[in-house]
Amino acid sequence: MLQINNLWKSYGDQIVLERIHTEVQAGDFVTMVGASGCGKSTFLKMLLGTEVPSKGQILLDGQPLAAEPDADRGIVFQQYSVFPHLSVLDNVIIACAFSQSPWTGWLGRTRKAAARQAAEAMLDKVGLSHALQRYPHELSGGMKQRLAIAQALMLKPRILLLDEPFGALDPGIRADMHELVLGLWREHQLTVFMVTHDLKEAFYLGTRLWVFDKVRHDPQAPHRYGASLTYDLDINRKRGSDLQGAALLKDIQARTAPTVALAG
Ligand SMILES: Nc1ncnc2c1ncn2[C@@H]1O[C@H](COP(=O)(O)OP(=O)(O)OP(=O)(O)O)[C@@H](O)[C@H]1O
Q1: Residue 103's pLDDT band (boundaries 50, 70, 90)?
Q2: pLDDT tens string 59-70
Q3: Which of the listed residues 26, 134, 164, 230 has the most CB atoms within 10 Å of its CB?
């Protein structure tokens, strides 16, 4: 589905990412870890289309990825990205409106009724049907993230990009969100890329784990080399093995320290 060929990203003379080669199949759930500042969000932005590669290519079904965001790709950020002045229901209806008439956000009466119905159904799926008329400031952090996920899914994306979506949530709420995301991933047959700082979460949710790290270092010029994919693990194969005690896990922890916690 996605092919990434020799991808590089620089800002000025800072090389952030280099030599990334990989392929992703439809339905993969890729979790991404790495030290703070190694370029995980930059990678997601290139997948979204708000940043362009400095070198190399991202191909979607053999075609270069559209250079700007489109309905194929939805994103949820750590900081709640919902409209504060709109109710829960209107936040989701407007996502639908923008997908259909991006320049005006305007919908005719029939479409508006259909959009409202679809929005209510989506909000039901994410467990917000009791809060349709509330405003974002009246929601908990977990509820806001449920709303952001509902918004992203209204556009029926094939690819869902999650940038530390649960970073600000309490552990109990995070567990609920994990089940929600896994359910939606299966039901909508999504391909998911998720950045996290929690290695346990990365192993639990992902079918593949990517570890970003620099393989080359120049102490005189720290920006000279960028991070690459140092591990691309098939987690299904590894899950259930004695990975927890393995040297591999220790190495991943070392590469992602100090920002990645292995909770529990
Ligand atoms: N628009 C930009 N202009 C210049 N430098 C940038 C820009 N965006 C990101 N960077 C730099 O690129 C590097 C990678 O940033 P990025 O946000 O992708 O890292 P990250 O791995 O997601 O970090 P964190 O885990 O802390 O969120 C950082 O050094 C950052 O300062």
Answers
A1: very low
A2: 999 999 887 778
A3: 164
Q: Is 40 in the pocket of ligand 1 (CB under 6 A)?
A: yes
The CA distance from 261 to 243, in Å, is 16
pTM of the model: 0.88
Strands 29-34 and 73-76: unpaired
Quote the ligand 1 centre to 35 CA distance (angstroms): 11
Grouping H, G, I as helix, E, B as strand and the rest as coil, residue 65 is: coil
CATH 3.40.50.300 for domain 1-72+157-264, yes or no, is yes
Whether residue 16 has its Cβ less than 6 Å from ligand 1: yes
Instruction: Annotate 191-234 with DSSP letters as a single string.
Output: EEEEE-SBHHHHHHH-SEEEEEEES---TT-TTSS-EEEEEEEE
Residue nearest to atom 10 of ligand 1 (CA): 11
The full set of domain ranges for the chain reads: 1-72+157-264, 83-156
How large is the ipTM? 0.97
How many CB atoms are closer than 10 A to CB 41? 18
Residue 138 CA: distances (Å) to CA of 84, 88, 120, 132: 10, 10, 18, 11
Ligand 1, atom nearest to 38 Cα: 21
The amino acid present at 160, given as its one-letter code, is: L
Sign of the C-alpha dihedral computed for residues 135, 137, 138 and 141 taken in this order: positive
How close is the Cα of 72 to the center of ligand 1, in Å?
24
Q: Which atom of ligand 1 is nearest to the CA of 259?
A: 25
Residue identifier of the C-alpha nearest atom 24 of ligand 1: 36
| 88 Cα–ligand 1 center, Å | 31
